[in-house]
């Protein structure tokens, strides 16, 4: 684990897509992820896993996270080809997505290990808050039942090309805290503790349930 926030391109990376979708096309949107998009991304060299989450809260309901060996993967020829040559199904669903945040993030693993069935996402607002979270993360993980691991994701401005539904002129690039937990109440409790400690506004924390995980190594099996 690290006790500081990483910003370098050699840090592990995560592609972060937080979005909503037109309800009229939600079934096709989920089918696209399940039948094409997750596997398409997870099989790119340098990717390790892909995970999808859904929130019961209002606002952006779907979160997709894709872990890479480093941020340098997002400058590779293989990734550039996939990003620049999207399938027709992908282009169709990009147009249906609303209020989308696409970020390429540097990962700072702070405390604990493991993947839970629930996740909390806390928008931190500033790098100073990210550094404060790094200092308190080990205590949160050790003292709160059901909290498995905490990490901070910090956006790389150059790599975080927005999708069509986000205005590049008004987007906010800020670090976020990810809390893995066994159940949503544990994730929510940890998020509230952090938000209260940092005096963050109401609404800065969202909890999700895990839909599924696809590991890149599983795609390489004979």
Can you tell me about this structure?
It is globular, with a radius of gyration of 17 Å. The chain has an 8-stranded antiparallel beta barrel, surrounded by 4 helices. The chain has 5 helices and 8 strands, in the order βαββααββαββαβ. The chain starts with 12 loop residues before the first strand and ends in a 7-residue tail after the last strand. The protein has helices spanning 26-42, 77-84, 88-96, 127-143, 184-198, and strands at residues 13-21, 47-54, 62-68, 97-112, 118-123, 147-155, 176-181, 205-215. It has 222 residues and is α+β, with helices and mostly antiparallel strands. 30% of the residues lie in helices and 32% in strands.
Mean pLDDT: 93
Helical percentage: 25-40%
Stretches with pLDDT under 50, minimum 5 residues: none
Provide a count of the helices. 5
Strand content: 25-35%
Number of β-strand runs: 8
SSE ordering: EHEEHHEEHEEHE
Structural class: alpha+beta
Outline, from the CA principal axes?
globular
